[in-house]
Amino acid sequence: MYRTGRGEQIHETGLFRDSITSRTEGYDRPLLTIKLASKLGEEWEVINAGVPGNNTFDAIERIQTDVLSHNPDLVTVLFGANDAAHHKRVQLLDYKRNLTDIDKSWPPFRRTRL
Fold this sequence. Notes:
The protein is of the alpha/beta class. Helices cover 37% and strands 18% of the residues.
């Protein structure tokens, strides 16, 4: 959360995902970002950290720079499509361990599962 020059509070939400999040569908930015921003309102800034082709191994490598460095108030995490893809095939135990490592990356006081 941060304050604008006018003193308004802005909450940040991060979308930490793969190509499902980053699709633009012909827009200048990801469609999910546009739709989520319209639903949340002006007091939220949506940070879309979706990267096409990424799996959970890639996510662990970029979590600090793409998500944690923004200190978001809320983060949604969704990976698995590329982990299960025929050309990548991340083993199930690796997938589970990677998701656990991603979950443990958040400060304990900010970690909540819905």
